[in-house]
Design goal:
Layout: E1 2-5, H1 11-22, E2 27-32, E3 37-42, H2 50-54, E4 59-63, E5 83-86, E6 89-91, E7 97-101, H3 108-120, E8 125-127, H4 145-158, E9 162-165, H5 172-176, E10 181-184, H6 192-198, E11 204-208, H7 215-227, E12 233-237, H8 254-262, E13 267-269, H9 271-275, H10 278-290, E14 295-299, H11 317-325
Parallel strand pairs: 7-8, 7-14, 8-9, 9-10, 10-11, 11-12, 12-13, 13-14
Antiparallel strand pairs: 1-3, 1-4, 2-3, 5-6
Helix pairs in contact: 3-4, 6-7
Length: about 325
């Protein structure tokens, strides 16, 4: 349920009304937008007396939010959310933010070399996996804690903020001061225990859409994190599984438009995992930008042929340079 307040309602009035509402055992979430003030009600709103609330002279309207996602819902927060990964690196504003780097961190030379290249081409965030969720237990699993240290070194060498995937809630402490943004990968989009724990941190979360998950399920996963108190979420469309085999996944670009309509959270597109083929990455990156994506996540490797993970979809620094000139 959301309560739309009249223009010019004071903060004191909103606070007083919020306290009054919370007596019905729901959480009142006031949001002050540009020209709009809404109070979002989260929880079981069955007991809330709508007629009594309408008697408040400052209440313009009360609407029931049908969708199961509330905090992530644009009705709760009419303006776009801008999520700051690091000072000056804001996702959801006017500027398209490019996150780039190898699928996995392989060595100090590799990660620093790639970081410098992508930075020179305008990337604002360095990506790189330390813990890799692989389909086969015999595939390279990542450098783990050493990978985190190397990402941190690359950050020290370039000042680029770092995004890296977290797979286990028990790792949160060791990730905390080694990265600027936790990536929740497609395979963990519905790892609800992980989502709940991330909700108790204040770090930015890049939440990727699961391989076979609907847009609504993606938003419900965001809601899990937000319900814990962390509203710093960036959604990521990275392709979904369909019957098509020429590409690794099928890039659902319509998700960008639908997500922007349903939610205030910024949306990033990952054309690398979506296509699985390096030569398709550029056109899909440009298409993502054209349909309003707030950012791009692109895999770049100094030597894709010998990459330990996802070489086929990784761009060389020269190919990335070409995409960046786009
Ligand atoms: C990755 O970013 O390297 C990754 C594993 O992505 P996804 O979870 O989208 O497959
Ligand atoms: Mn990858």
């Amino acid at each position: 349920m959301i309560i739309i307040m009249k223009q010019g309602t004071t903060h004191e009035h909103v606070d007083e009304l919020s306290r009054h509402i919370e007596r019905w055992n729901v959480k009142a979430n006031p949001i002050y937008g540009e020209g709009t003030i809404v109070i979002g009600l989260v929880g079981d709103t069955g007991a809330v007396d709508k007629d009594a609330l309408m008697l408040d002279p400052q209440v313009e309207n009360i609407i029931k939010v049908q969708e199961p996602f509330k905090l992530a819902n644009r009705k709760f927060h009419p303006d776009n959310s801008v999520v700051e990964i690091a000072p000056g690196v804001a996702v959801g504003g006017k500027k398209l933010v490019v996150m780039a780097g190898p699928c996995s961190v392989e060595s100090e030379e590799q990660i620093i070399d790639v970081a410098k290249h992508v930075q020179a081409d305008g990337a604002a965030v360095l990506r790189g996996g330390a813990w890799k969720p692989r389909s086969s237990p015999y595939s390279f699993q990542g450098l783990k804690a050493e990978g985190l240290e190397l990402l941190h070194k690359a950050h020290e060498a370039t000042a680029l903020p770092v995004v890296t995937e977290i797979t286990n809630p028990a790792h949160i402490d060791i990730f905390m001061d080694k990265c600027d943004c936790f990536q929740v990968g497609a395979r963990n989009m519905q790892n609800f225990e992980l989502l709940k724990e991330l909700g108790h941190t204040n770090k930015v979360i890049l939440l990727k859409r699961g391989l076979a998950n609907t847009i609504k399920e993606l938003l419900m996963s965001a809601e899990y994190i937000m319900a814990g108190g962390n509203e710093n979420i960036i959604l990521c469309e990275r392709g979904i599984r369909t019957f098509e085999t020429y590409t690794r996944n099928t890039l659902d670009l319509s998700a960008v438009t639908v997500l922007h309509e349903l939610s205030h959270l910024p949306v990033v597109v990952d054309p690398s995992h979506a296509t699985g083929v390096a030569r398709y990455v550029k056109s899909m990156a440009l298409a993502a930008a054209a349909c309003g994506a707030d950012g791009l996540m692109i895999e770049v490797h100094n030597d894709p042929k010998h990459a330990k993970c996802d070489g086929a979809q990784s761009l060389t620094p020269a190919q990335f340079d070409d995409v960046a000139k786009g």
